[in-house]
User: Fold this.
Amino acid sequence: MKLKITVAENEAEFDRIAAERIIQEMQNNPKAVVGLSTGQTTKNIHAIVGELYQLHPFDISNITLFGLDELTNVPREYDGACYTMIKNQIADIIGLKKENFIMPPTISDDFERECRIFQKTLEDRGGIDFQILGLGTNGHLGFNQPGTPFEQETWVSKMDEVLEARVRKETGITDKELRGLTLGIKNIMHARKILLAAKGDSKAEIVKRMLYGPISVDVPASILQLHPYCEFLLDAASAKHIH
Assistant:
């Protein structure tokens, strides 16, 4: 299978291409279920989606947005909560209806139940039409760290130590277990279309392993080699080791 790889000339083009892919999906499919990711890679992308929508509004009354994952046991109002980031960066900007913004809660007495509800809610809306993914420096997707089985469905995973330390510092939470509720790799692979967005020199080595290494749970993103409609969007720095 020939991989679809797009290399942007610079960061501005990278962000514009990704934003246009999201806008195109929503315009071409008025009932699209669109999965977003949070972090430094996607913040500017969300901003451009908002700008493009405000310049050229279109009907989003039946569009569903959701986040790939969420932190557990933090306040939903915490700036680092995925709910808050997506809400502030894009959902509120485009005026998305509250009932069309699907996120698991950050606080619950039964996160396994929340996983089932989150997954079923997306299934009831017809499944994922388009999913944008970031890439961890170790190849993780969402909170699916290396070693996660490819058949894993929505679950609660451990955070990496660096992220956990940062969240604890920012929230002051010391007495609760912090984890990540995430769609599993099986759910991700069931998305009809995927955009994997990776930029920066720090991603260059893992990009090479993702695209050309063996498909292995040691690099969760390597499974995307098998997805029939996955586009890998890179910048020059992240693409420097590929041919």
Summary: The chain is about 35% helix and 15% strand.
